[in-house]
Amino acid sequence: MLPLLDLTAGDPFCSASAAFFGMMGCASALIFANLGSAYGSAKAGVGVAHLGIMDHRLVMKGIVPVIMAGILGIYGLIVSIIIAGSINVKSGYSTYSGYAHLASGLSCGLSSLAAGLSIGVVGDAGVRAYGKQQKVFVGLILILIFGEALGLYGLIVALVVSMIGGGPKCPAIKDAQ
C-alpha cells in the first residue's frame, strides 16, 4: 500500500489525512467567500436595477455595493492560493498545518459570507433609499464599509493563521514505486 494512504501507520501528528484538512480549508475559503460575493452582488444589483428605474443618472454611484460585494470573492481567492501553495506532502505536512489551514479557510470564507449578506441587504435597501433621498449616500457608504470590514477581518486572521509556523516536523514522503 502507498505510504500516503496508510492512515494506520506513523505518527498521529503527521497523519496522511492532514492534506485533506488543508485542502478543505482551501476550498472553504473560496466557496464561502464566493457565496457571500454572489449573494451581495445579486441582492444589491436588484436595488441598482430599481434605482435605474427611479433615476438612471444615479446608477453609477449606486453600483458601489455591487463592487464591494465582488471584492469578497477576491479575499477567498487570495487565501485559497496561499493555502494551496503551502500544502506539500512530499516535504512533510503535519496535522497541525492541516488544521491551521482549515481554520484559515473557514475564517476567511465564513467572514466573507457574513459580509456578503450584510452588503447585500444594506446595498439593496440603501440604494433604493438613495434614489428617493440623495442625502443618505454618505451614511450608506459608511454602513457598507463596516460590512466589508467583516470580510477584511476574516482575511487578516486567515493570512496570519495560514502562515503560523510550529507544530511537529514531519518526515518527507518518498515516491512509492
TrEMBL record:
Q: Which InterPro entries match?
A: ATPase_proteolipid_c-like_dom, ATPase_proteolipid_csu, ATPase_proteolipid_su_C_euk, F/V-ATP_Csub_sf
Where are the annotated coiled coils located?
Answer: none
Extract the Gene3D superfamilies matched here.
lithium bound rotor ring of v- atpase
What molecular functions are annotated in GO for this chain?
A: proton-transporting ATPase activity, rotational mechanism
Asked if the keyword Metal-binding belongs to this entry, the reply reads no
* Any Gene Ontology CC annotation: proton-transporting V-type ATPase, V0 domain
Membrane-protein topology: Multi-pass membrane protein
Record's protein name: V-type proton ATPase proteolipid subunit
Organism per entry: Naegleria gruberi
